[in-house]
Structure formats: structure tokens, C-alpha cells
Batch of 4 targets.
Target 1
Amino acid sequence: MNGIELAKKYYEAYGIAMLEEQFGNVSDRIAIGLVGEGSECLGYDDAFSQDHDFEPGFCLWITAADERKFGFKLERAYTKLPKTFLGYTRSPLSPVGGNRHGVLVIEDFYRKFLGTEGVPETFAQWFSIPSATLRAAVSGQVWKDDLGAFSAVREALQKGYPRDVQLKKLAAHTIMMNQSGQYNLERCLARGEIGAAQLCTAEFVRHAISAVYLLNNVYEPFYKWAYRGMRELPVLSELEELLTALPVADDKPALVEQIAVAFAREFCNQGISDSPSNALCTHAYAITNKIQDVHIRNMHVMEGI
């Protein structure tokens, strides 16, 4: 059983009855589910994940106004739910906040991940938010949300980056793929700088992974799950195998070029570049030229990272 299944079973066993019996008059104002940090919210948890932060528990999201009306009572009721379930023990809630489960204020929940109470309103806000926290904000499952306040933000975020932000970030990662993989890697190898070549390879892989997520307009998760998540993407998921092989490949430049060709082809397929070259720097600037907002287009290419 994975974490999200355990959470839902716990909610169905105890949470539904608690809400109906004690909060029937306001239950339509409480969103229920499991969203946030942790591999269980991504659906990637396994037996190894159970050595920390694995427990029966779920989230109850309410507005700040409702928190003042019945938040304390709701939290006390949640705290009194059984501490063990199906052989797993629930951790005690912290009285000073920071909990992943229990009663969470909608505005505070999104502020934690986004730095704002709802969907980012400016391009500057979008650029400032790490992709992993955006992914956490849209992960997991929502089982009930009659009010719709929590889901309204979630559903807007799930649409991905605004187009100009997506393109700017993609251009930045593409120019870094060119610099690290198509330019510096061969120079470091020719000089016998093996350590530097390893760093070039790692940089190329890191930016290539980010570019794959951006081409799918899906937020990249925390780095240890980036490869895993790539396998589920509809566009360029096949590069996961090549990028995994690259650090130990005998002919790294040749494999870099094979990966670059795949990116160049996809850029043209999506209509964001018309460059006939496999040099990724040419595609980075072609992608930049597709940006509509003049301010974003004129920002330094590296500001997309």
C-alpha cells in the first residue's frame, strides 16, 4: 500500500464520520485530500519510503476566515482520531505549525509553496518560484472540495507556466545544454581535465532534464524524482534512458549530440524554433524570439533559470 492509499483509507475509516457528526453544518466548506511534499504525494513512494514521514493522515483545508470560526475545534477533532491504523502510527501534530497533515489554512498552504496566497499574478513571481515547490502544490489528490476555493488555485496551477515564462526558462536551459555539453565537454576532455568533464556532463544532464519537463509544461519535481517523473511524460520521455547512460558512456560527446538532435527536432516540431542546426544555442535564441512580452524577451537569457 502506498502513502496516498493509506491516507484515503484512513479518511474513509474515520474522517468522514468525524466530519459528518461534528461539522455537518460546515463540512461543505472543508476541502479534503493529500497534497504537498513527499514522495507519497507524487505517487512514487515504496517500501524504502516508510522509514520516515509515512503515516495515516490527511489534509483538511479551510479558508482563513473559517479558521477563525471553527479551525481550533476542527484541529482538536482531527487530533483525537485513532493514532494507529493498519499497523502504522500517526505522528503528533506540532502546536506551532509546519504540519503536512491536519487542518491547513488555504492561504497559508499556498503561501508556503508559492510565496503568494494564490496563483502568481506577475511574471516576476513565476520566475521566483522553484519548480519543485510548484510541483508539490499540484501533487497528490483532492477527494472533496465543495467550496472550491482550494481547488480553484490548484487547477489554475496545473495548467503549467504562462507561455512566455515557459519559453524563457526553456531557452535558458537550452543555452546551458549547449555550453556544458556541446562546447565545454569536448574541450575539457581534450585537455585531460576529467573532473571538469564530469561536471560538464552533470550540468548537461541537469539542464536537459529541466528542458524535457518544460517541453511538456510540467513542473519538475524534487531532483531525486526527476528521472522517475520523466518516464511518465508524453514528450521526449525516451531521453531518460540516454541521460542515465551519459555519465558512464565511453563516447560522451557523441551521446550528447544524439540527445541534442532529439531536442532540436522537438523544438521544430512544436514550432518554437525553425533553426536547421543541431547547435542548441541557435535554438535557444529562436525560442527567445517566440516570446511575446517584450520585457521577458529582452531579459538576459540566463534569467530564465
Target 2
Amino acid sequence: MRKSHITPIDKEVEIPDNKFLVSKTDTRGIIKYANTAFIEISGYTEEELIGSNHNIVRHPDMPRTVFKLLWDTIQSGKEFWGYVKNLSKDGSYYWVFAHVTPSYDTSGIKIVGFHSDRRKPRKESVQKISQIYAEIKKAEEQGGLEAGLKKLNEILEMEGKDYAEFVFSI
């Protein structure tokens, strides 16, 4: 399924404390599995999600910089933790604290896809990261992805942390 244009609306859907949104993709980000919680919160049917690129739920407020960092991290075989604002099919949004890991073939050497589990983030963390993402997004709008990466690195340098340390500290 191709991503259709969905107009975002200012309506947040909160993930219940006991829910984990789980998906599995191939190496290109094509969804191969979506659990019931992900289906319910995203507003898509299982049939609409399976075979679609995971960016079907990408909210336009999210900086491209964060996804570049995510992809660089998981393609190098490392796990990624981060805050993500997603877009539901009806235009509402939901914030998640995402954990994305590579999945390997039986030899344990070749990456064959990615596993993502997402949970409800703390409100205080979302407030902080929203402001930071707005700064990065503004930098991207003025100077592209390179400017966004520069802004993120400036923020991390000021904090004296790498991205993973930073997201766990807010």
C-alpha cells in the first residue's frame, strides 16, 4: 500500500500503559507483521499495514534527521531507542518510545529485517523532545538534512551525551 496524503489533526491518542505496539519489517522497512495494539492505535487494518512501508505512520512533525539516525543505527547492527510522533489513519497522532532492533538470519550474521516495540512515553519527555524536534525540523527546513544533523549534534554536545544516553535522560 502506498502512503496516501493524510491531513494531520490536533487530536492525540494516548497509548494505554499496558499496551506495546509491535511490528516487524524487512530490511527496506516494509511491514511484515503488526500486532493488534499497533493496528488499533494506528487506525489501519492489518491488510493495509502488511506490505506497506513503515513510514505509513510517519507524522510530518518528525524531523528526517531522527529517521536517518534510526536507520544508520539499526543498519549497523545496533539497537535504537527514541521518541517518535506517529500519524494515525484518521489524522490524529500518538507518541511512542520506540525500541528498534535488527533481526538476523539463522547464522546470526546477516540482517534480514527489523523488530520494533513501542510503548507509551512519559508526558514530560514528550514535552522536552517536542521542543527539540521543532528546532531540528526548523533547521532542516532552512538547510536540509545536513542542517538538521548539525542541530542535533549541537544539542547532544551541549548535553554531553550521545543520542541513546540523551533519550533515556529526558
Target 3
Amino acid sequence: MKKLLTLSLIAILGATSVRADDSHTPRGDLVVRVETCEAILREFMANPTTAIPRSVLQNARGLMILSQFKAGFIFGVKGGYGVLMVKRPNGRWSLPVLIDASEASLGLQLGAKSVDTVCVLTDDATPRLLFTNRFDIGVDAKAVAGPSSAEVEREAQRIFVAPVLVYSKSVGLFAGATVKAGHVQRNDKANFTLYNTSYTMPEILYSDWVTAPSEVQPLMAYVQQIAP
């Protein structure tokens, strides 16, 4: 049992270190991450049961789209990636910046689950939490489940004061996690490669110093369309 626990812990630490180093990731793979996040958002919006209400999107100050995978026995690791976009003061949406998403769990775990999540950020302060490298969703920024269209009116007072509204769907089987702490963190190395720039996340999000490459323009146009 001690050997099993030790090997599981090594696997967790190894997976975490791999996720954290994108310095040698080919640019094409990073483009795929952006395209995957766009596909996730489009899938959410195309399904009436998961679509984010227009009134919620109109109040959005930022969007995080996350793609994660969780698997394990005894110990589990949820690794993944995502993009963050913010609405600028002029009403236009920023370039998407790549971020890391991970979660470590302790408990009896069986099976695997892929999880797609869209987080609607309702204030300007929450995206800036990532400037200090990482923050825990639900701890550093209070998060509540995002409402459906039918729930918006009766839940308006509750939802629009929450900094993060979470919409999530999952595929697969997973059971038994008893302790977990999820976080997202900036990934400047990936953004250096994706945008061929030395500017960091705050500058990419809030300045006009970086030109949007063709690969990220479809996501930017779609977000501008659904959240004008």
C-alpha cells in the first residue's frame, strides 16, 4: 500500500510538472487548444439545456473556457487547459490567452471523466486574480452554478452579485473524490509561442499591442457575437 501511494503521488507531481511547462510545445498544438475551447463554447450554446442565457452574457466582463480530464485510483489528477478573455472598456472582447487548469484529489476514485466548463466572470477584478499566477475557483473568487434561461429572472439577485457563474458538463464515469481543490493559472510560456511575443498575459488582454493571428479570430468573433 505504501508503494502504491508513493507511485500515485509521483504520478501526480509528474503530471503537474508536465502541464506547467509549455516552453517546447509546438505552436500548432496551442492553436488546437484555442480551437477546442471555441468548439466547447459553441456546443454549450447550441444545446438549449446548456446554453448560457443572453442576459448573463450581456453582463459578462470575462469568459474562461476550460477543457479538463480527470482519472485515477486512490489519487486523481484533473489536468487541462483553457482560455481567458475579457471585455475591454470599449465593449470589444480581448484576444484569448491560454491558461492551465488542474485539480488534485485525495480519496477513493474509480473511473475517468472529461469535463468541459465555461465560467462567466461578472466583474473586472476576478480576471486580474490570475496576474499573481493562479487562483482557486470557488475559494479566491466565489463561484455559483450559472442559471438557465428559465432561472434568470428569479435568481437575478443571487447570480449577478457572484463573481463567477459556472456552466459545466461532463462525459464518462467518476466516483468517490472526497477532498479536492481546483485552480487555474496563467501560462505565459504558451502565450509567448502562440502570439510570437514577449508580452505577458495582462498586456495581451488589456492592450492593443498584439495583433490577433488568424487562428484566434473565429473565437473572438463568436464571443463578440453572443456577448456584445
Target 4
Amino acid sequence: MSVPIAKAQQNRRVSFYDLTLKYVVFLLFALMVLIYTLLSPSFLSGSNLLLILGQASMLGIASYGMTIVMMTKGIDLSIGSLAGLAALVGVGLMVHSGTPVLLGILLGVAVAACMGMFSGLLVSRAGVAPFVVTLSTMFLAQGFQYMVSDGGQSIGYGFPLAYLKLGSDITPIILFLIITGILYFVTEFTVLGRNLKATGANPSAAELSGVNVRNYITVAYALSAALAAIAGFTLGARQGYVEVALGDSFLMDALITTLLGQVAFGGRPLILGTAFGVIFLCSFETGISMMGAPVTTLNILKGFLLLLTLLLSSLQSARAK
């Protein structure tokens, strides 16, 4: 076999590998939907799709914060704890002090955003690793949750009707779509979005081009915390009670969804990629639940999904070099 022919065959094999690696998440999603539909035709029913979208709405809002931080090559391990803290602060004020709903939500979001800004300052100004900073913030937020809830008491009564409407019917879905549209526009078509991406892609080059990298990193963590708080309020209204560890599940799920979207959309954290990742994960969870699998099995499978996503991300990064 001549050398040119051998090289052509090798290029075809490489191209097929690259193509498969590029679209593997979409293929897995299509295969998953097909299997679930064959096993349970009601999987694609209107009511079940609304259920999936309802679950996706709260997780998606929290995951967008993780996505923005990952645009700067960071990570935020505190989103779950901050979601719970914001909800406990805001709802506690509504129920026990008669604070208006909007003001209670704004105060809860402000508390979370301030802690997120604190994390961002430590990362950007003090040079502490994002993992260490946000892990510390997570523990701080968990401790504050017990402080503001009198030792961990949940709130399950006395909610204002205006607050409960935040989690009723399709309100969370509408909120999710609005936030998706706003963040997509901001990250793709504004200076803020371009500079956030530049900060993560090459901080030194961004600094030389006039981007204040430290400020953008701080803003990213503050936004992440604020979005986590909104997700926490929505989840509390949806389930009708607020407790310590309310948003703890957001952390692992947000990591999975952001990485899924990153692998599916060319190796970069994007808002639309994360939206797809959220639909993927919520469909995955709903299908497993419809099969009657226990929670422990679901957690194990989600762990394997996270490992698979990390593996695919690593392969993509190696291929890009």
C-alpha cells in the first residue's frame, strides 16, 4: 500500500473519531430517549415533558451560575449552600417578620451575592484556588443556614401566596426561559460576555488588551451566587417548604449539566450548552425514576455519568492540542 493511500485512510479514521467525539453526547441523548420511550410510551407525554421542564427550570438557573464561573476557568462549589441560605433568609423574613415578598427575595439574593463576591475577591485578588475558596464558602453558608434557622428548623407554613406562585404551574419554566434568553444575549453579544470568555481563555492576553480580569472574575462569582439564590427561592416555592440543605443537590447536578453542555458544544462552557445539559440530566433522572429505580441507584448512575462526561471532556481537550 502506498504512503498517500495509507495517509488518506488514516485521515478518514481520524475524521470519524473526531466526528464521533464531537456528537457523542447528542447520540447518547437520542439513544436514551429512544430506550425510555420503548420501555414506557408515556415518557414523551405532554405531562411528563412538563415535569421534566419544571425540574430543569430550577437546576438550569443554578447551573448557569456554574457556567459563568467556568467561563473564567473557575469552579463554584458553594452554589447549593448559597441557594439554601438565600431561601432561608428571604422566606424567614417573609414568614416571621412580614417582609414583602419581593423585598425578602432581594435581600436573600443580596446575601448570596455578597458571599459570592467575597469568593471572587479571594480568587482574583488573593490568588487562592477557586476550589479551596468556594469549598470554604460552602461550609460558611452551611453554618449560616443553621444560625438563621434557629438550629436547623424548617419553614413549612405561613408562606405568602405571592411567593408560592413563584413555584406554581409553569411559572418556573417561564422564569427559566427568560433567564436563559437574557444570559444567552449577555454572554454572546455584549462586552461583558466577551470579556468573561477572554478572561478564561487567556488571562494574560486579556489584561494586555485592557480587560480588568480581576473585576470580571469577581463579577462571575457574584452572578453565580445570585443565580443560585434565585434557584433556591424557586425550589422552596415549588416544594412548599424551606429547610437547611435545600439546594445541596444543585452542586453535583450543576457540574454534570455544565460539563455535558461543554462536551456537546465544542469544549466551551456556553449558556445554550448548559441548557441542553440540564434537559439531558432531567430526562435521564425522570426515565430512571419511571423505571422504579431507588434513589441510591440513581445517585450511582449520576456518578458514572459525571465520570463519563469528565472522560469525554479530557479526550476533547487532548484532541484539540
